[in-house]
Write a structure and sequence with these properties.
The protein contains ten helices and seven strands. By secondary structure, the protein is α/β, with parallel strands linked by helices. α1 links the parallel β1 and β2. The chain starts with a strand and ends in a 21-residue tail after the last helix.
């Protein structure tokens, strides 16, 4: 099978029949072997019944139904797990992403050798209250991740099969799939300008809270990818620095007192000075951070699994699983 189209859906029953017809036309025109996997993320409007009816007409249409709403990341993760195509395309179910982009995205993966191609909605039909925060968010994500993409949050993306089978998406991490892919060793990441259409049915399911969640998840993904395997580098390093600064301040206060007393002058007790309590606090916090890093290392080493490393190929070696 050449293409798997993974589509998270939440209360999009009106748009799904039109989207499926559009995808079918594109696939038949290009003679692609394909499957379309809808993930019903706890919809309450008949989305699952619509997908079921479409499957009866076209077996290439498949579905996964969640008992409740888990979010887009969970939907994508389930779709990635089920996908069988050599190239996996993701898009939203609201008809704002164009299936006409699929052939070129597929070509960029297969012929140009990209691991991941992200869409860029250069011209958007969203209100300013949505586009301005998005620009600020994307600028921050570019700086932190080092990946020069204009639109991290674009739902229209294409992946080599190995990529989606090698990453874990949870929380609100769907925004950072390019970053997760890069950390997993897939570094050929491209971008394509894609057409963006106005919403035809219903209303957007996202509000301002997604921006707050997005930044919190950005901190999480940076921490996990950079320090998840070696928390001592962060906590141990920061704790050692704080302990040393606190110790230096305490030594300074003691030396200052001794110097004043050596000249026969009355010196203020060290423990009466606010700076001493600051030094003491820094030393205590530093020790706690160091211990947190040490415990993190112990836990990490006990739970690590040598088979979790992603093996791309092998020669005459048994008992090593190759990531698909």
């Amino acid at each position: 099978m050449e293409i798997s189209v993974v589509i998270p859906s939440f209360n999009e029953s009106e748009s799904i029949p039109e989207l499926v017809a559009w995808i079918e036309r594109v696939m038949h025109e290009n003679r692609f072997g394909y499957e379309v996997i809808f993930i019903d993320d706890g919809s309450t409007d008949g989305t699952w019944e619509t997908v079921t009816a479409l499957h009866a007409k076209n077996p290439n249409v498949k579905g996964i139904r969640f008992r409740r709403n888990y979010g887009k990341s969970a939907a994508l993760y389930s779709g990635f797990y089920a996908a069988q195509g050599d190239v996996v395309i993701t898009m939203d179910a609201d008809l704002q992403d164009s299936p006409d982009e699929i052939p070129e995205l597929y070509r960029m993966i297969r012929e140009e050798g990209y691991d991941l191609v992200s869409g860029w909605k250069k011209q958007r039909f969203d209100p300013m209250g949505k586009t301005l925060p998005s620009k600020f968010f994307n600028a921050t994500a570019r700086r932190v991740s080092g990946i020069e993409l204009h639109d991290f949050n674009c739902g229209l993306k294409a992946y080599r099969k190995k990529v989606v089978k090698s990453i874990e998406v949870y929380g609100e991490m769907h925004r950072y799939i390019p970053f997760l892919a890069k950390q997993a060793g897939f570094r050929k990441i491209g971008e394509k300008v894609v057409r963006h259409h106005p919403r035809k049915y219903g209303r957007s399911k996202y509000g301002w809270e997604r921006m707050i969640k997005g930044y919190l998840d950005l901190i999480t993904v940076v921490f996990i990818t950079r320090f998840g395997k070696s928390p001592m580098y962060l906590f141990g390093g920061g704790g050692t620095l704080m302990f040393l600064i606190g110790g230096i301040i305490a030594i300074y206060l003691i030396v200052q007192k001794l110097s004043i007393q050596s000249h026969g002058l009355a010196a203020r007790p060290v423990t009466d000075q606010p700076l001493f309590f600051l030094a003491l606090t820094m030393a205590i916090v530093g020790v706690q951070m160091f211990l947190a890093g040490f415990l993190g290392e112990l836990i990490g080493r006990r739970t690590s699994d040598r088979n979790s490393y992603l093996v791309d190929d092998k020669i005459d070696v048994d008992n090593i699983k190759i990531s698909e």
